[in-house]
UniProtKB/TrEMBL annotation:
Name the record gives this protein: Crp/Fnr family transcriptional regulator
Signal peptide boundaries: none
Organism: Cohaesibacter celericrescens
UniProt keyword annotations, A-Z: DNA-binding, Transcription, Transcription regulation
One GO CC term on file: cytosol
Alphabetical list of SMART domains matching this protein: cNMP, HTH_CRP
Domain Cyclic nucleotide-binding: 29-132
Listed SUPFAM superfamilies: cAMP-binding domain-like (SSF51206), Winged helix' DNA-binding domain (SSF46785)
UniProt cross-references to PANTHER family, sorted A to Z: CRP FAMILY TRANSCRIPTIONAL REGULATORY PROTEIN, REGULATORY PROTEIN YEIL
Transmembrane segments annotated in the record for this chain: none
Domain annotation HTH crp-type: ranges: 163-236
GO molecular function per UniProt: DNA binding; DNA-binding transcription factor activity
Length: 247
């Protein structure tokens, strides 16, 4: 039985404890935690709300906690000296981040920015340290969370090295539809504002290349892309694009 979060700082948040638990239990990592550890996490965690575009932390900042996305989204990225942005990933509700700094006690490796009005459940460093000291099994679970990040990094390296631009874009659109998809009468709508520049940085190509692929797929009836929103009409066609190259 999952314990309910009973005390949350009020920042005009309109979300119940039951909804929070439902979102968190959508994560296989969180579901695997022992009930007593879930109870301890929930009793120590606080909720904080961020406005669209607000920075949660910058690359090089002190690590001030581990976070779970409850509502909204978080973009993990870094920006070069000349203003070019590299987007690593988008984090949807139920996803956790910040574990690297909690393990090695070092600085943040990237920027984290709220996309849309975003609510984060936060465990402060002192609370994380208490859990690690009091419940040694939590060390293993933090390591498993880090393993997930490492696996995703290797998958991205594999894709950028071995897959074509079309396959990389198709694979990322399918992934985004799984994390942010909303049912639509014509398919699945990715509920995330994505510019062609965003998509270009995610798969390491140019905006012009992204535009050509999206236009071609619209003509084929696979997608419908308008005003930063992408509707996936034929998800199987997109899956086939990268499945053929992954074999």
């Amino acid at each position: 039985m999952v314990k309910i979060l009973t005390e949350v700082p009020s920042h005009n948040l309109v979300i119940s404890s039951e909804e929070i638990n439902h979102i968190l239990l959508g994560s296989s990592w969180f579901r695997a935690l022992p009930d007593y550890l879930i109870e301890q996490i929930m009793s120590r965690a606080n909720l904080y709300q961020y406005e669209n575009g607000e920075i949660i932390h910058y690359r090089g900042d002190e690590s001030l906690g581990i976070y779970a996305v409850i509502t909204g989204s978080v973009k993990a990225s870094t920006v070069s000296a000349d203003g070019r942005e590299c987007i690593f990933r988008y984090l949807s509700p139920g996803n956790w981040f910040g574990e690297i700094g909690m393990i090695d006690k070092s600085l943040r490796t990237h920027d984290a920015r709220a996309i849309g009005k975003t609510t984060l459940l936060t465990l402060k460093p002192c609370d994380v340290e208490h859990l690690l000291q009091s419940y040694p099994i939590f060390n293993r679970f933090l390591a498993l969370l880090l393993c997930k990040v490492v696996r995703n990094a290797f998958a991205m390296l594999h894709d950028s090295t071995l897959l074509s631009v079309s396959a990389r874009l198709a694979k990322r659109l399918v992934s985004l539809s799984e994390g942010y998809g909303e049912p639509h009468e014509r398919g699945v709508l990715i509920n995330l504002y994505l510019t062609q520049d965003d998509l270009a940085t995610i798969i390491n190509t140019t905006r012009q290349t992204i535009n050509k692929r999206l236009v071609a797929w619209e003509k084929l009836g696979w997608i419908d892309a308008k005003y930063g929103k992408i509707l996936i009409v034929n998800i199987n066609a997109l899956r086939q694009l990268y499945a053929d190259e992954d074999e």
